[in-house]
Amino acid sequence: MTASKDQTCEPDLDGLAEAWIALWQTELAALAAEPEVAAAWRQALGLGAAWLHAAQPAPAAAAPGDAPASTPGAKAAGAPPGLRPGDALGGEDAAAQRARIDALERRLAALERGPAGGDADRRGPRRRRPPA
Fold it and tell me: How many C-beta atoms lie closer than 10 Å to residue 109's C-beta?
């Protein structure tokens, strides 16, 4: 009795699986035909591809700014245009940059100490003058 029951159910399950696959194929085809859905999928896949590209580690052998100038994108990987070694915002002079950072840290510490090197300024915020 079990063998005959399995034989009768098996064609039904195969037909049901084929019908289910056909149903989903038509549903996905209908969704792909809609411009809004297709645009949303393109955007989602584009974001995923950009994320995967950004998540890849840089090659260990070369630093980002070591590409030769003839390769595309070498200018974008290095310093911004207009900056040269020794400029205030970039360049290769590490000692000058460290000295500038030290000077800024000293100024910040002086500002945190408050006026005349005393405690922090505990006065309330200044009020704005009413418009005349």
Answer: 9
